Amino acid sequence: MIWFQLQSLIGSYPLALRGLGMTIALSVISLALGTLIGFTIGVLRTSGNRLVSTVIGVWVDLIRGTPFLVQIFLIFFILPEFGVELDAFTAGIIALTNLAACFICEIVAAGIRSVPTGQVEAALASGLSQWQRMRQVVLPQAMRVSLPPLVGQYVLLIKDSSVVSAIGLTDLTRVGWLVVQRVPNGLLVFAIVGIGYFVVCYPLILLARRLERRMSAAHGEVQL
After folding, report:
1. Averaged confidence pLDDT in the chain
2. How many CA atoms, within 13 angstroms, populate the side-chain half-sphere of residue 61?
3. What is the 3-state secondary structure (H, E, C) of 45-108?
4. Are 44 and 107 contacting, i.e. CB atoms less than 8 angstroms apart?
5. pLDDT band at 217 (very low <50, low <70, confident <90, very high)
6. Structure-model confidence comparison of residues 117 and 83, the more confident one
7. Which of 33, 90, 92, 137 could connect to 123 by a Cys-Cys bridge, CB 3.0–4.6 Å?
8. 69 CB contacts (<8 Å, ≥6 apart)?
9. What are the pLDDT digits (tens) for 162-181?
10. Do 100 and 38 form a contact (C-beta atoms < 8 A)?
């Protein structure tokens, strides 16, 4: 029986490749846009403008404190009630980009706040403008601190992309649900789906570990 199920799974590989490609495309586009937006609002949140910081903080807390499934349902099912029609792929991109931006914003903001105040004051005493201080002094140090958790967050966001299957987008998880209707072995089918996500995420896991080791080594050298 397992042999026939495996044969059916092998016959489903074109659909599986399509789902894997959709997951990769969705993740790459969303993470690229989310990184750009998250980096920008992370810098703005630490700019010293209390109103801007408060508005960004409220939005970030709202998105981080509510289920992603609810967010994507609001975008895909509720926005059309207000005349905004979105296909499943576009809705998935918007929802994932927004989620990524909010988490990345907090990581970047935390990295900026970790820079010693004395170095910022020294840059100010040197006559550097606010933009020059941020570009030449603050951001290079902040990014060294932020990179390991940032890459780790990418892994989590790629896994969160599986939620888009709830609005009918044929990603890897959706393919699993379609295949399990023909191959009544959920354990086997979703084990393979899990392996697919692992293949996508594992290079990022290795990168995060490498960055953490480099950060630890650099910190040890500074202490010596």
Report:
1. 83
2. 7
3. HCCCCHHHHHHHHHHHHHHHCCCHHHHHHHHHHHHHHHCCCCCHHHHHHHHHHHHHHHHHHHHH
4. no
5. low
6. 83
7. 137
8. 163, 166
9. 888 888 888 888 888 888 77
10. yes
**What tens digit of pLDDT does each residue of 11-43 get?**
666 777 888 888 999 999 999 999 999 999 999
Q: What is the pLDDT of residues 131-140, one digit of tens each?
A: 777 777 788 8
Close Cβ partners of 137 (under 8 Å, ≥ 6 residues apart): 115, 119, 120, 123, 128
Token readout for 180 is 């399990």
DSSP states of the chain = -HHHHHHHHHHTHHHHHHHHHHHHHHHHHHHHHHHHHHHHHHHHHTSS-HHHHHHHHHHHHHHHTS-HHHHHHIIIIIGGGGT----HHHHHHHHHHHHHHHHHHHHHHHHHHTS-HHHHHHHHHTT--HHHHIIIIIHHHHHHHHHHHHHHHHHHHHHHGGGGGGGT--SHHHHHHHHHTTS--HHHHHHHHHHHHHHHHHHHHHHHHHHHHHHHHHHHHHH-
Residue for token pair 């998880």: 173
